[in-house]
Structures are given as structure tokens and as C-alpha cells.
């Protein structure tokens, strides 16, 4: 069975603070894909990043960075110098290498206060 | 790229009524997915299509639910004899074929069953 755990239900920070959203996953597959999506109040899920299980290289995109560690089954997401527009629910998700179903975590509500 | 479009955005119906939602995927995407999201939870997979073929259905999709994609373009999701437990956000997503193609989600249809 596959499972994604986002232990942080809600995080509140002040603008310009750095914040890390945690994601721990469980799977027996050797081939899998990990995703992060952002869901602003408008409701649309916005794709942020995809990693495959064979690529543990960390990635940076502007103020966003991702730390993938297979040894701890974690795929954490860091926002540097947070901004009010970063306020949203962030979901981590897992896809098996053999099908196209995404298993989502319960999400982390990030509130960035001015 | 006009994005994934869903209609209606909101639907309020009385218990026992039938409802139908429509999803128009990104035009060149041949895969189409339906997910359901309840308050405070991540989206849960319901079903997906490759072109017009429905390839997988979740056990969450009871006999009262039916999805179609008749010409491999838009899709409809019908719920018959709605129950209060059907109240949720119904999300549609589409993607290109290929393991590394991310899902692009629409804004969703929020269903309220009274």
C-alpha cells in the first residue's frame, strides 16, 4: 500500500521567513514519482515539481527548493524568504511507476503573514 | 494552453437527485482523471481515461457514479441518487501520456447535497 504523510497540518510564518514543509512517503515500489502541488484559495491544484525515485538530486527553483532523501523516505519542500502570495495548502503526492494514480497527503496549510 | 475547464463551479442539489459535471481537458492531453476532495483532505483518485477508454476505477466509485469520455475529448461524471456523503469538490485533471507528464488540474466542481 502507498501512503503519504504530511505531519504539519498548519504552519504560520511572518513574511521573509524561511519555511520547510515535510513529506514522508511509504511504498514498496522501486520505481515511483513524487510531486508537490499548491492549492490556493481559488481551489485549483498547481503543479510545482516532480521527481522520480532514481533521481535524488536536490532541486532549486527561485525561492523554492526540494530535498529528496530515499534513506528516510522524505521529500521536503522549502520556501525561502516567504511571501504573502505563498499562502496556500501544499500537497505532497506519490505515483507508482506502474500506474497513473496519485496518492496525496492531507496537505499543509501555510499562512504567510505580512 | 487554456487549462483544464470544469463546469459548473458550484452545484447544490437535494438528496436523491442526479447531477452531471463536465470536464474539458487541455486539448493535446490524452489522459483524463477524476478526483474527489473533501474538506481538510487531499484529493482521492476516482477514475482515469486514456483517450476514450476508462482504464481504472477506484473502489470509491460506487455504482451510483459513472464517468464517460465518449470521443476522447471532454468527460462527464454523473452521480445518481445523490447522498449527503457525496458532498465534496470534484476535480478533473489531464496529462500527456508518459510517466513524467504531470497532471494539470481544473478549478473543480463543488457539490453540496442538502
Protein model, in words:
The complex is a heterodimer of chains A (about 110) and B (about 110). Helices cover about 0% and strands about 55% of the residues of chain A. Chain A has about 110 residues and is mostly beta strands. In chain A, strands 2, 5, 6, 10, 11 and 12 form a 6-stranded mixed beta sheet that branches. The mean pLDDT of chain A is about 95. The N and C termini of chain B lie far apart (about 35 Å). In chain B, β4 and β5 (about 45-50) form a beta hairpin. The mean pLDDT of chain B is about 95. Classes of the chains: A mainly beta (about 110), B mainly beta (about 110). The interface of A and B includes residues 37, 103 and 105 of A.
Query: Sheet bearing the most strands of chain A, described?
Result: 6 strands, mixed
| Spans of at least 5 consecutive residues with low confidence of chain B | none
Radius of gyration of chain B: 13 Å
Enumerate how many helices of chain A there are, as a single number: 0
* Low-pLDDT windows of residues of chain A: none
Largest sheet properties of chain B: 7 strands, mixed
Give the tally of β-strands of chain A.
12
Number of helices of chain B: 0
Question: β content of chain A, as a range?
Answer: over 45%
Class from secondary-structure proportions of chain A: mainly beta
Amino acid at each position: 500500500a502507498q501512503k503519504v504523510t504530511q505531519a504539519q497540518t498548519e504552519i504560520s510564518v511572518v513574511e521573509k521567513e524561511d519555511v520547510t514543509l515535510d513529506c514522508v512517503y511509504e511504498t514498496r515500489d522501486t520505481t515511483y514519482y513524487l510531486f508537490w502541488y499548491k492549492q490556493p484559495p481559488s481551489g485549483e491544484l498547481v503543479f510545482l515539481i516532480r521527481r522520480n525515485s532514481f533521481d535524488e538530486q536536490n532541486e532549486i527553483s527561485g525561492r523554492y527548493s526540494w530535498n529528496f532523501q530515499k534513506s528516510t523516505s522524505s521529500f521536503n519542500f522549502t520556501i525561502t524568504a516567504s511571501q504573502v502570495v505563498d499562502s496556500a495548502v501544499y500537497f505532497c503526492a506519490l505515483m507508482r511507476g506502474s500506474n497513473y494514480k496519485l496518492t496525496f497527503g492531507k496537505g499543509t496549510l501555510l499562512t504567510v503573514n505580512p | 494552453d487554456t487549462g483544464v475547464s470544469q463546469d459548473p463551479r458550484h452545484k447544490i442539489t437535494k438528496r436523491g437527485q442526479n447531477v452531471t459535471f463536465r470536464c474539458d481537458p487541455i486539448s493535446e492531453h490524452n489522459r483524463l482523471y477524476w478526483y474527489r476532495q473533501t474538506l481538510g483532505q487531499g484529493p482521492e483518485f476516482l477514475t482515469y481515461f486514456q483517450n476514450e477508454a476508462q482504464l481504472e476505477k477506484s473502489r470509491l466509485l460506487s455504482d451510483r457514479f459513472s464517468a464517460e469520455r465518449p470521443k476522447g475529448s471532454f468527460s462527464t461524471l454523473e452521480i445518481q441518487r445523490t447522498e449527503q456523503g457525496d458532498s465534496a469538490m470534484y476535480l478533473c485533471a489531464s496529462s500527456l501520456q508518459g510517466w513524467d507528464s504531470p497532471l494539470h488540474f481544473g478549478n473543480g466542481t463543488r457539490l453540496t447535497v442538502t
